[in-house]
Amino acid sequence: xxxxxxxxxxxxxxxxxxxxxxxxxxxxxxxxxxxxxxxxxxxxxxxxxxxxxxxxxxxxxxxxxxxxxxxxxxxxxxxxxxxxxxxxxxxxxxxxxxxxxxxxxxxxxxxxxxxxxxxxxxxxxxxxxxxxxxxxxxxxxxxxxxxxxxxxxxx
Length: 155
What we know:
Elements: E1 18-24, E2 30-37, E3 40-47, E4 63-70, E5 76-83, E6 86-93, E7 98-102, E8 109-115, E9 121-128, E10 131-138
Antiparallel strand pairs: 1-2, 2-3, 4-5, 5-6, 6-7, 8-9, 9-10
């Protein structure tokens, strides 16, 4: 067995916030994560190269719960939020300025989500009877495809 070492730069952020649930965009240019301060969770999106915070228009009105997920370029950001006592999946299209509530059964006890790089599919892990299941949702008729360079074909 071999061990490889890589050169990398470590950037530390000192904001005093508890940060968790990090997720990179497929191209590595954006980072979404949650923070918690005094019991309040907040969703953040930053440009990796500069640490600059990027605008999130619609999702800030909801209480983030877990599992932010980004499409290839970060055009789409999906997250599980709490709304009126239940967990819901929300997606923001940062390019078109649109916002989507993804219909899920009320009884679904969501744990995590993952958005496909092109934004055409969503997978939700959920608990039922102490087992974890996956539910797949086709978003191809709802969201425009996030561009993926041809050298990264996932089909």
